[in-house]
Inverse folding.
């Protein structure tokens, strides 16, 4: 499985299929390998900036949430998509979840030495 931010309409990796139709303006999509049965996953929610799929594994369900957060104004970063993310996380409840994507946030924990910490980004650290 591949999670993509800012996909192009013209390219799908060999032996993979998109989790939904790709169109101009879409910012996130999953590419699912042909060996993963169609009955082993389901699309739970999808918008231009967030996609949530649920995969059934041997160890139980795994929820994957792919996010593209548009960049904020310099000096005033914000996670514009947080209300939708929080709603999805509440709906997932106690099931396993991986939250991934391009948040357009900077923090020393995942940046190089000297990266300045942006305001209100600590809640992404689990």
């Amino acid at each position: 499985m591949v999670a993509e931010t800012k996909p192009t309409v013209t390219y799908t990796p060999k032996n993979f299929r998109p989790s939904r139709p790709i169109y101009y303006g879409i910012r996130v999509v999953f590419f699912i390998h042909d060996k993963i049965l169609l009955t082993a996953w389901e699309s739970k929610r999808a918008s231009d900036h967030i996609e949530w799929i649920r995969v059934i594994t041997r160890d139980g369900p795994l929820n994957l949430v792919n996010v593209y957060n548009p960049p904020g104004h310099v000096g005033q970063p914000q996670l514009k998509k947080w209300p939708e993310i929080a709603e999805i996380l509440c709906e997932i409840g106690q099931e396993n979840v991986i939250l991934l994507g391009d948040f357009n946030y900077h923090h020393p924990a995942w940046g190089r030495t000297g990266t300045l910490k942006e305001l209100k980004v600590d809640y992404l650290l689990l």
